[in-house]
Specification:
Helix content: over 70%
Largest sheet: none
Strand content: under 5%
Number of strands: 0
Distance between the termini: 46 Å
Length: about 170
């Protein structure tokens, strides 16, 4: 809603500037910038937030796994993440916890999280949690395996980035 409002404002300001200055080129430039800039800013902000979330995900998984290992349930582990970690992961897990406490299912709250945060490791975690809750099994062991898998994937990604950067500098 706010992006469409800014788009409408951009068109209005552009038209007003065009009328006041008799420069329709300036007016067109303001309209184009006003239409593109908000969408671009939101996209950049979402990408930065997702990257910050990914950096904190490993610690959150370890915290939830430790909570479950000590006998607490997964919702309490999520609450620990929401209260003890820094944003953005604490904010996002807080939203998950609030949705769950308001009567929604944990699975739906986690799926909503994956819609807000674009992250491949998060998608893997959420699918694993949902499958384990539906089929049963050792969720603690699943968390340990997830942490190990995500750690290995992160190492691989860093190695690929380093090798590709090295290849680009040699060209």
């Amino acid at each position: 809603a706010s992006i469409s409002c800014s788009s409408n404002c951009a068109v209005l300001v552009g038209a007003l500037l065009g009328w006041l200055t008799d420069s329709w080129v300036l007016a067109g430039a303001f309209v184009i910038v006003g239409l593109v800039a908000p969408k671009l800013a939101v996209t950049i902000w979402k990408n930065i937030r997702s990257a910050q979330f990914d950096e904190q995900l490993m610690d959150a998984l370890v915290l939830i796994g430790n909570a479950m290992r000590s006998g607490l349930d997964i919702a309490t582990g999520i609450e620990l993440v929401a209260t003890n970690m820094k944003p953005p992961i604490s904010e996002e897990f807080g939203v998950v916890l609030n949705a769950y406490r308001l009567g929604g299912s944990l699975e739906d709250a986690l799926l909503d999280l994956t819609r807000r945060i674009k992250s491949r490791p998060l998608d893997t975690v959420v699918v694993s949690i949902i499958l384990q809750r539906e089929t049963g099994g050792n969720l603690i062991r699943t968390f340990e395996q997830l942490v190990q898998t995500i750690r290995e994937e992160s190492k691989l990604q860093k190695r690929v980035r380093a090798l590709s950067a090295q290849g680009r500098t040699q060209i």
